[in-house]
Input
Amino acid sequence: MNIVVCAKQVVDVGEIKVNPSSGKPMLEGIPKKISDIDKNACEEAIKVREKVGGKVTVLTVGTPDAKERMKELLAMGADNGVLVTVPDKADHLVTSTLISKAIQKMGGADLIICAEASIDQFSGQIGPRVAGLLNIPQLTYCYKVTAEPQKLTAERNLGDRLVTSESSYPVLVTVTKEVNQPRLPSLMQILGSAKKPIEVWGTSDIGAADLKPGIETIDIKGVAMSRKNIVFKDDLDESVSKLADSLSKEGLLG
Amino acid sequence: MTNRSLSLLTAYQRKDYWGDKMVVVYSENQKLACEMLSKARELSAELNEKVTAVLIGNGKDQLSSELIIHGADKVVMTGASLSDLKAEEVSDLLCALAKEEGAGLMMIGSSKDGKELAARVSSKLGVGCSTDSKKLYMRDGSICSERVVFSGNGVAVERFTSRPAVVTVPPKAYDPLPADVGRQGETVRKELPYGTYGSRTVKVDPMLSEGANVEDAEKIVSCGRGFKNSADIKLIEELAGALKGYTLGCSRPIAADLKWLSEDHWIGLSGHKVKPKLYVACGISGQVQHVAGMRDSGLIVAINKDANAPIFKVADYGIVGDLYQVLPKLINAIKART
Ligand SMILES: Cc1cc2nc3c(=O)[nH]c(=O)nc-3n(C[C@H](O)[C@H](O)[C@H](O)COP(=O)(O)OP(=O)(O)OC[C@H]3O[C@@H](n4cnc5c(N)ncnc54)[C@H](O)[C@@H]3O)c2cc1C
Ligand SMILES: Nc1ncnc2c1ncn2[C@@H]1O[C@H](COP(=O)(O)O)[C@@H](O)[C@H]1O
Output
């Protein structure tokens, strides 16, 4: 079975600081990582391969430095990687088109796994978009995936109800954070990942040189929050009594 | 800006170029559909387009007049042969409708179903999509949408350069218009094409709910993984009781992984967004995704044994200490003051 994991390099949103004068988030110099739930997607792909056999390819649309991050997924157990160079202006329309064209160039996939959402965009668009472009079924928000040779069954959290769905292949699945616990690669696996191939494809290599986004981001506004930040850390009884007094003064105990 | 994109932009700004005739509104949640209709009416006046609401599946006939009295000019009923409203087929129907009738803007309710549907529709139409749009407006002839990004650390202002503009709209973003019982509208039944796909729904189970309404709560006491087992949650129940007028909240792992509380308690980026007067976070580390759901609270109090926990950076008052020692003392102290 040919399995493709879509994984994205993102800025570590937990490390973003606010520019004190403009109030806007500062994105330069923030460490980058693989978006959290994409590791769950990779873990699930490896589990499926362990059960039904096949190959796991990590597919990333990103900047050249994403190669280093992709190696973490190869160390977990993915077989190879494809990095598609992201154009200057990319929205979800552009990214999903590149992903689907890259999958077509690979000769197609039986199973494509994305995360329910990324930590920088949190839109959950890429999975359903890729499924739409390839005109295949989509099983979203899966917290349990059971792959068999002929069909895949998934338990899905749709917020107001739990849905069990099944599909023939090819199918695109998006997984939640709860679907599994991503494995931590051993030192041997980390060293071994250096030998696994990562191909780099340009947009013209996949016949997608002239893509235009459908949305332009024209500004990123800050979300200012000012808090008192009064932290009591000394004697416990004293801390508790100070906190209770403060709450009382704020009129919150009535 | 290059000449090319400039001429494209002016072309987009020229109404005749789009050939758009309507704003489409769709949600399986009737209340949310009415909220979107209110915004759709406002924008349709600016866009000079009609507002079309869509009903999909069978047995929905009586809902049509409700949509008209809340602002729809037209209601299209389609997909009567569909018993299972899966994203694959429903997106085919919406794409066919958008193409046939010329949609300039599609507003889809931002439930999980709505989000996956909107994304698939946008891919099939080859257009942009703004998920969880908080604000929607026209600026210099373009449709713009604002949405939270970077797990709550920023708000992106997005401008559509493609049509139809597709957005998903969360509940309570807009007030519905008052029902205008005299309002006239057209209801049409229309069979639109859809494909067949290799997926099917096997089983649907209700989501367990304890009926917590965190969104409207005045005071919320929340628990995180700092609690060692589910029985200990009685500690925050007691604290909440002492505070009066409380609701219990929790972090994602408490609801989604451990299932100590039902998901209606789950607060954060992927859970409920809350703005109580008082939010008390006990044993919650304060990762950005949790903070995204409670940053608009009036006063934030944190109890955590780790002085470096990020929750203290977003708190007004905090106690560094073991919650198993702090909570019983705090409960007594509050009781003594009320
Ligand atoms: C895309 C995405 C979306 C997400 N959405 C959400 C969301 O909507 N809501 C959400 O909550 N999370 C969400 N998360 C998960 C989030 O990143 C964190 O993993 C989660 O909030 C951590 O929950 P926690 O604080 O309960 O647990 P932990 O991070 O494990 O923190 C437990 C805290 O308890 C403290 N503690 C331990 N013992 C004690 C004690 N005896 N006394 C006092 N303190 C103690 C520890 O110091 C620690 O700070 C999301 C993640 C992703 C990737
Ligand atoms: N640039 C990208 N390259 C590869 N996969 C991606 C990319 N962007 C998004 N994805 C996948 O789509 C998921 C949802 O992303 P998003 O639509 O940004 O919320 C991610 O978690 C990834 O699995």
